[in-house]
Structure formats: C-alpha cells, structure tokens
Design goal:
Elements lengths: L24 H23 L1 H11 E5 L2 E4 L13 H35 L7 H5 L13 H26 L5 E3 L5 H4 L11 H4 L3 E7 L4 H16 L4 E6 H7 L1 H7 L10 E6 L2 E7 L5 E2 L4 E2 L1 H10 L19 H19 L36 H5 L3
Parallel strand pairs: 3-5, 4-5
Antiparallel strand pairs: 1-2, 4-6, 6-7, 8-9
Helix pairs in contact: 3-8
C-alpha cells in the first residue's frame, strides 16, 4: 500500500508486442521508446501524491446534501436526501440513543467519583510525570535516523487518511441516495462498454437497495446498511426509489433484473464486478415483516454469502476517480484560457455613430449621415474648391 515510502516501487512494464514488423527500424524504435515513456509516466503519476491530492481537491464537491463527494459519482442537483420512513426511523433511533448516552454518562460519573474516593493520593509512578523528555534537535534529543523514521511514518498516516477520505468521497463505505436514473449505473450495471477507466466505472462490489418510501422495513434496512458501511469500507452502498428506478431504466432492469417487478419491492440487490449475483425481493428472509424491522445478522449473512462485503477497497488509488488525467488536464486548460480572457482589458471602440460597428480605428461610413460624420467621400469644401 505504501509504495515509494521506503519500500519497493512497482514499475509498469512497457508492452512491446503488436508492433508492425513491416515498419522501418527507426519507426519501430520510436514506437518502443514512446511505450516505455508512457510506462514511466504512469508509474510517476501513481506515486505523485501531490498531483493526486490536487486532482482530488479540484474534483470534490463540498456542498452536497450528504457532505462532500466527487463530481464523477454524484450530481449535486439530483442526488442525496432521505425518504419519509427513513427520517422517522432515524428520529426514533436518535431519541433512544440519547437516552442510552445520558444513562452511560451518569453511570461513568458515579464510578469516577467512587474511584477517586478509594484511590491513594501518592502513586509510585508519579515520578514518571516529573521527568523532562528529550526534545528533538537538542543534545540527547534523538538521532537523525529516528527523526527520519518519524517523518516517514507521518507521511504514511497522511497518505492512508487521504486514501480513506477519497474512497468515501467516491461512495465506498457510505450509504448514499442517488437519483433513480443513475443508481443502477453507479453500481456498475450496464457499464460494460464504457470507455476510459473501466476499474473506476465498475466497482468490485456494490449493494443496491430499491426502497419503498413508506416501508419501515426499507428504513430499517438502510440504517443497518449504514452501520455495515463503517465495517466493510470496500463496498459501495446506494439506494433509490424502487418504482421510479424500474420505470426510468426499463431496458436495463429487464436485462439485469429479470425477476424483479414493481410488485416485488422493496428489494436488495448484490452486484459483483458489474453483474448481479443475488437478489432478495420484498426483503424476504431478512427480518420480520410484521414488526417492520430487519435482522442485522441475517442481512450481513446474506450479503456475505453473495461475496459483496469487502473490508478494503481492492483498487489502486488512481482508479477511484472516473475522470481521466487527460480530461482533467483539458478542463484545467479551458479554465486557464477562460481566466486569461477575463483578465484582458476591454478594447476602446471608435464612436462613428453607426450602431453595431465595433471598429477600434478612426473611420467614416460613406453614405451614412449622422451626428458624428457627414457620410460624404469628400467634404463639401474640398469638392467645391472653396477652402
């Protein structure tokens, strides 16, 4: 995971096969050198943490309804939000959790008071608190090797935090509500012919919940999936309205979900590498329909049998985003050109009196008489010779 930070670097090898043997030797050598150069540049981009962080910062949208997310996965105008049953479920769960927290804090305070009354004032380890620890950079403050190891460790932790945060911004380990028109594609369905970064377009494991907005079973399942996302951070969790999804994606639903109809909603779908591996219509065998709640252990066991619960994202960091580097470079170049045009000073247009004329030099329009010009090719004095 931490290649380039004291460990070996996995360098891409150039594919020198498939070169036309009928070409001249100079042309073959040029093709080989170009492929080797592309392999080296790919390796450098993989380990350029500053460039990756800059790309991530530029493509992240911070004002989404659920927080921050990458523009390649989310649409700020359509995605996000919660349905009625889920809002009511979270409100009831939040009230119960507040009561439990208050009771736990009260018990902890009581235990601390009893421990303080029973503890001795003088401890045999108090002398450790009085010792002055050596300060780095001073005499006896540690050698350079220890400081270098400390800095490398800090860099590893920073990279690990950036990777986890970027994974969440691309939908891994979090449960998000998407627009019904986009939810199936976000899980990798119907993306077999995608161009560009196929690894980013088709997640290794995804879970789709087609909910019923008035079903308490759906709300209970979404709460359960949000908790599973904290443990299994390598899976992408998405949800959308079931009826709207089947209506807007009729052809794709008929191809990928042949057994799913509007009468079998709500449903839970497990997707692996862009292929549906399991489907649970009406959330059967996942809980008690009469009580309106799912059993978390049953949900976890069902998803585990479908092999869609991943603890880590099995992708390279540069494969998180669907926006290719060349597309990002083109967008950046267009933004720079737009900024340059905005900085150009306005041109001084010569006032010739003709509406719509934008010439900047001094001129006259023959045959057009107005307050600024006479419209004559020669002035009257020169023509009559009276000057």
């Amino acid at each position: 995971m931490f290649e380039g930070l004291g460990g070996p670097i996995r360098s891409d090898r150039a594919d020198l096969s498939g070169i036309d043997p009928t070409l001249e030797s100079c042309c073959q050598r040029e093709i080989e050198s170009n492929r080797k150069l592309n392999a080296v540049e790919t390796t450098l981009r993989r380990h350029d943490r500053i460039a990756l962080a800059e790309r991530r910062r530029r493509n992240v949208i911070d004002d989404l309804k659920f927080g921050s997310g990458c523009r390649c996965c989310y649409d700020p105008n359509m995605d996000g939000g919660e349905y009625i049953a889920l809002i009511e479920m979270k409100a009831s769960v939040g009230t119960l959790s507040e009561q439990v927290c208050n009771e736990a804090q009260l018990n902890l305070k009581t235990e601390q008071e009893s421990n303080e009354s029973d503890s001795d004032d003088d401890s045999e380890f108090d002398y450790l608190l009085d010792e002055d620890l050596p300060v780095p950079g001073t005499a006896g403050g540690g050698d350079n090797a220890l400081m270098a190891h400390h800095q490398d460790r800090v860099k590893e932790l920073q990279l690990f935090m950036m990777m986890n945060e970027s994974a969440r911004e691309h939908g891994f380990g979090v449960h998000r509500q998407l627009h019904p028109e986009r939810v199936l594609h976000a899980a990798g369905l119907g993306m077999g012919g995608v161009r560009g970064n196929r690894a980013a377009a088709i997640p290794p494991a995804a879970i789709i919940h087609l909910y019923d907005p008035e079903s308490t079973m759906s709300a209970s399942l979404d709460v359960c999936l949000e908790k599973l996302g904290e443990e299994y951070r390598g899976t992408k969790y998405v949800r959308a309205g079931g009826r709207a999804t089947l209506t807007m994606n009729e052809d794709l639903a008929r191809e990928s979900l042949p057994k799913l109809t509007r009468d079998t909603l709500p449903a839970l779908i497990a997707v692996r590498d862009g292929v549906v591996v399991a489907c649970c219509p009406q959330l059967s065998s996942l809980g008690d329909a009469r009580a309106g709640k799912v059993e978390p252990h049953a949900v976890e066991a069902w998803l585990d049998n479908a092999r869609v619960l991943l603890r880590e994202v099995p992708l390279e960091f540069e494969d998180y985003c669907r926006i290719r580097p060349e597309e990002d470079a083109l967008l950046e170049n267009m933004m720079r050109e737009k900024a340059k045009l905005a900085e150009l000073p306005p041109e001084n247009i010569y006032n010739c009196g003709v509406k719509g004329c934008c010439k900047t030099f001094r001129h006259q329009h023959v045959g057009v008489k107005n307050d600024e010009q006479s419209g004559l090719l020669l002035c009257q004095e020169i023509a009559l010779g009276t000057s």
